[in-house]
Write a structure and sequence with these properties.
Blueprint: H1 3-11, H2 17-22, E1 26-27, E2 32-33, E3 38-39, E4 47-49, E5 53-55, E6 60-61, E7 64-65, H3 69-72, E8 76-77, E9 80-82, E10 86-88, E11 93-94, E12 99-100, E13 104-106, E14 111-112, E15 120-124, E16 127-132, H4 133-145, H5 162-171
Parallel strand pairs: 1-4, 2-5, 3-6, 4-9, 5-10, 6-11, 9-12, 10-13, 11-14, 13-15
Antiparallel strand pairs: 7-8, 15-16
Length: 177
């Protein structure tokens, strides 16, 4: 990890993934953590993340709930386990004691309060099962058949030109590509 990235994390009051692993968090292969993801640093050893997991911006994984501290002088704590091949959408919150199965998509802005079974798509606050992963992927494949599809050359990491940006903006008016 380069020192600039570590410095930026520290400025934001966050810990790097590597620091959290040193503190006891378990992480599998191919973990992608986008900007602003908070992995409960005060109880990070209670977090277990599987292989091929992506957390979109501003996801919060919480292993503690201090709502009872003021009244009972105790904070609730619980493990959070995230299986393999999981995508957690932007602004989602996973609460203590939750187990997320394998092959799961959690929609943006969801609050995950209960376990999520394998092969499912969940959305909402509190989250609920929308459909199976296979049903969702079949629906999206069918939609793609009649949609405009763009390659990686239309991404910032591949230095998309301003011309292609404007083309995409025009083509996607009122539709999803």
């Amino acid at each position: 990890m380069n020192w600039i990235k570590k410095f930026v994390y520290r400025l934001r009051g966050e810990y790097t993934t590597e620091e959290l692993i040193e503190m006891g968090m378990t992480v599998g292969k191919n973990f992608k953590r986008l900007n602003g993801v908070i992995l409960d640093p005060s109880h990070c050893w209670l977090i277990e993340i599987g292989d091929n997991v992506t957390m979109a911006p501003r996801v919060h994984i919480l292993c503690h709930d201090a709502s009872t501290k003021q009244f009972l002088e105790y904070t609730k704590i619980g493990r959070v386990t995230i299986g393999n091949n999981v995508f957690i959408g932007a602004e989602s919150v996973v609460l203590p004691g939750v187990n997320i199965g394998n092959n799961v998509i959690i929609g943006a802005n969801s609050t995950v309060t209960h376990d999520v079974p394998n092969n499912s798509v969940v959305i909402g606050s509190p989250s609920r099962i929308l459909c199976s992963l296979d049903e969702y992927l079949d629906k999206e494949k069918k939609r793609m058949e009649n949609s405009i599809c763009y390659g990686e050359e239309y991404t910032l990491r591949k230095n998309v030109s301003m011309e292609k940006r404007m083309q995409q903006k025009t083509e996607l008016k009122g539709i999803i590509g």
